[in-house]
Design brief:
The complex is a heterodimer of chains A (74) and B (210).
Chain A (H helix, E strand, L loop, with lengths): L1 E9 L6 H9 L15 E7 L5 H9 L5 E7 L1
Chain B lengths: L1 E6 L6 H11 L2 E6 L10 E4 L19 H11 L4 E4 L1 H8 L6 E3 L7 E9 L4 E8 L3 E3 L2 H9 L3 E5 L12 E5 L5 E4 L16 H12 L1
Parallel strand pairs in B: 1-2, 1-3, 3-4, 4-11
Antiparallel strand pairs in B: 5-8, 6-7, 6-9, 9-10, 10-11
The chains are: A alpha+beta (74), B alpha/beta (210).
Chain lengths: 74, 210
């Protein structure tokens, strides 16, 4: 059983309003100079066959039209 | 004419969709998402709601239901399919329609009446109610969709509340038998609720079935 972490982010160039909202909230809390905030998703899982993770990401965990994903073995 | 309206766990507009089908004409049946057989219906409506709780991404899990396999076969055989709101998201996730729906630009759930313009240039007044309705497709895909006449509905000037690219409210597949839109024509079939323009969306589907 292999453990892995999958990071899913909005593709570059796609407007990420969630990231923008977080970014706009920061100066009010006194955090200056923080930019380019992008909010994505993280999925942790265990798989008998780590080879299938790529296909699993393409078909379900990410929508390749709008999201990039990265598989990190743990 | 027999209409089939799919129902997933979390669908919420299936009753209005059934009613709209009956108003336009014919018999309408509810089809549970676990059914692999659509029972010989002429046209399919995938209604709005929050199928499977919108977990992961809206429509991402519903596309794997047995009924969606049957819908894909129905569509491949040229049968008409209409996806409304969450149904549109499901069709995009299933690859039966091009593009994707993202969180609204302003992050707010929007619920209001909007004007749409259909392919013939007619303006339709139809409600919108969604949190993830911002249509997106890469530029080259958008150019191809426009060149092939696959943009079915656009928001009229000043009515694009969610930030959809090129004001796109609905698209069809290349063959033209699968149509999806974010606004809710099933809520606009009775004068009691302010507009009957939604009927035209169902009538267009009915013509495809003929």
């Amino acid at each position: 059983m292999a453990r892995a972490r999958v990071l899913i982010r909005p593709k570059e160039g796609i407007l990420d309003p969630q990231g923008k909202a977080v970014e706009r909230a920061l100066p009010a809390l006194g955090f200056e100079g923080v930019g380019n905030v992008r909010v994505g998703r993280m999925v942790e899982l265990e798989a008998d066959d780590p080879e299938q993770l790529g296909e699993l990401c393409e078909k379900l965990l990410a929508n390749p039209l709008i999201e990039d994903y990265e598989i990190q073995p743990l | 004419m027999i209409w089939g309206v799919l129902q997933f766990p979390g669908s919420c507009d299936e009753r209005d969709a059934l009613h709209a089908c009956e108003v336009v004409g014919g018999e309408a049946r509810l089809i549970w998402h676990g059914e692999r057989d659509l029972g010989g219906v002429d046209a399919i409506v995938i209604p709005g709601g929050f199928s499977y709780g919108d977990y992961l991404r809206a429509g991402a899990i519903a596309r794997f239901s047995p009924a969606m396999e049957a819908v894909a076969e129905h569509a491949a055989a040229g049968g008409p399919v209409l996806g409304i709101c969450n149904g549109f998201q499901v069709l995009c996730e299933a690859g039966l329609l091009p593009g994707a729906l993202l969180r609204n630009e302003e992050l707010r759930f929007i619920c209001k009446q909007a004007d749409l313009v259909d392919g013939e240039g007619q303006t339709l007044s139809i409600p919108i109610k969604h949190g993830e309705g911002r249509y997106y497709a890469p530029e080259e895909m958008l150019d191809a969709l426009e060149a092939r006449g696959q943009v079915a509905y656009r928001y009229a000037d000043g009515h694009n509340a969610n930030g959809s690219v090129r004001d796109i409210a609905g698209v069809r597949n290349e063959r033209g038998n699968v149509v999806g839109l974010m606004p809710h024509p099933e809520h606009a079939v009775d004068p009691l609720t302010g507009s009957t323009d939604g009927r035209q969306v169902f009538e267009a589907l009915e013509r495809l079935a003929a």
